[in-house]
Here is the input.
Amino acid sequence: MHQDIKEILISEEEIEKKCEELGSIINDHYKDAKDPIIFVALLKGSVPFLARLIKYIDLDIEYDFMDVSSYAGTETTRDIRILKDLDRSIKDTNILLVEDIVDTGHTIKAIIKLLENKGAKDVKIVSLLDKPSRREVDVYADFIGFEIPNEFVIGFGLDFNEKYRHLPYVGILKDEIYQ
Ligand code: PRP
Here is the structure.
């Protein structure tokens, strides 16, 4: 275990098992889809989750990446700036947005609107982690791996000052590291 970690919240084995379960649910959900299915992963946090999840996908999919940064807006609507956009048109496609965590909900709220404005036929969200106690806007992920408490979590894509993303588990950071 990394020295800056207080506790492992979700082990590598638990993540793997959950990705298999989510993969099976997603395969079933899209089994009759006629239009293209595109997994859209948000950089950078969702990269390990995307990589693990697609091992269990039996559908014909494409995947692509977006990078956005959010900046202050009103309390319920936060604007996002696109740092890296999708490579292709998503008109009339089924989009599965792949997230590592839904926290306040501002990011997915803004991205759903953006993807719908680009002409996506359907937008669904899969998130490895959900922190409902932090929610500020009324949005939810369609497929959720783990609901977690309001702790400072890192690892498996999640960072503190860009560190710890590479850890294969989700851990709780020691208080003295971020305070
Ligand atoms: C994190 C995370 C989600 C978002 C969730 O991304 O990956 O995209 O914040 O927060 P919210 O629900 O409060 O909007 P971040 O902007 O830290 O970028 P990163 O993935 O590159 O770490």
Summary: The pocket of PRP is lined by residues 42-45, 99-107, 159 (CB under 6 Å). The beta strands are 5-10, 37-42, 61-71, 79-84, 94-102, 122-130, 143-147, 153-154, 170-173.
